[in-house]
Amino acid sequence: MKKLKTTFGDRLEAAADAKKAMLAKFKPLPTVIDPDFDKREAEREAEREAIRTARAAERQAKKDALAQAEQARLDAEAKAREDADHARKSSQRAELMAMYGRKRR
Questions:
Q1: 4-17: pLDDT as tens digits
Q2: Angle at Cα 94 formed by Cα 90 and Cα 95, nearest 5°?
Q3: Of 3, 8, 10, 99, whose CB neighbour count within 10 A is largest?
Q4: Contacts of 13 (CB under 8 A, 6+ apart)
């Protein structure tokens, strides 16, 4: 049979050993330093920079497309106004000619 520790000193020692074992679980383990850490970090940074550049290009393309669409809309409005003005002038001239009895040549 196994001999049981029954004295007070034995119980204190067992408690101290248990406490040490519990604290040992929480101690950080020694880490292995990866030799390629800097290389991988540089690769990640290059990838992030490529993503940033691509996103900036997308944003700029959107801005350019919106500006181009806005310019096309403004040009169309100007053309419509010009056509309306030309039609108005032509109708006014036709009315004047009709009023004075002249025919348009």
A1: 667 888 889 989 99
A2: 120
A3: 10
A4: 5
Taking CA atoms, 74 is separated from 27, 39, 65, 84, in Å, by 70, 52, 14, 15
**Taking the CA atoms of the chain, what radius of gyration do you get in angstroms?**
44
DSSP 38-99: HHHHHHHHHHHHHHHHHHHHHHHHHHHHHHHHHHHHHHHHHHHHHHHHHHHHHHHHHHHHHH
Residue 79 exposure: Cα atoms within 13 Å on the Cβ side: 6
Q: ∠ CA 40-44-48 to the nearest 5 degrees?
A: 170
Using CA atoms, how far apart are residues 73 and 38, in angstroms rounded to an integer?
Answer: 52
Tell me if 40 sits within 8 A of 47, measured CB to CB: no
What tens digit of pLDDT does each residue of 21-77 get?
999 988 888 788 888 888 999 999 999 999 999 999 999 999 999 999 999 999 999
